[in-house]
Task: inverse folding
């Protein structure tokens, strides 16, 4: 009788990495009204009134402020929507994204 050898199958599980995170950054300008910035921060980023004011003041004093951290797609979408809200009203409001280190 011929000898049958069997090889056990090894299961390989792909290693999944956590997605890289991106910061959404509010860039200060001297033309967009503060109340409008607060409204956008509350609406798009779901910040409280107090949090939105602190982010707006920090951006005003330092030139930029990190609003929140998300995965790349979410960060880019939120930044674009917030920037578009400013453009729709004729303001130069700008949000950018960059990778978190």
Result:
């Amino acid at each position: 009788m011929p000898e049958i050898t069997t090889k056990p199958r090894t299961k390989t599980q792909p290693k999944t990495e956590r997605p890289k995170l991106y910061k959404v950054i509010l860039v200060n300008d001297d033309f967009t009204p503060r109340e409008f910035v607060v409204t956008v921060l509350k609406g798009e980023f779901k910040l409280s009134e107090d949090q939105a004011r602190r982010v707006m003041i920090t951006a005003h004093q330092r030139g930029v402020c990190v609003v929140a951290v998300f995965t790349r797609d979410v960060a880019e979408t939120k930044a674009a929507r917030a920037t578009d809200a400013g453009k729709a009203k004729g303001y130069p409001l700008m949000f950018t994204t960059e990778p978190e280190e």
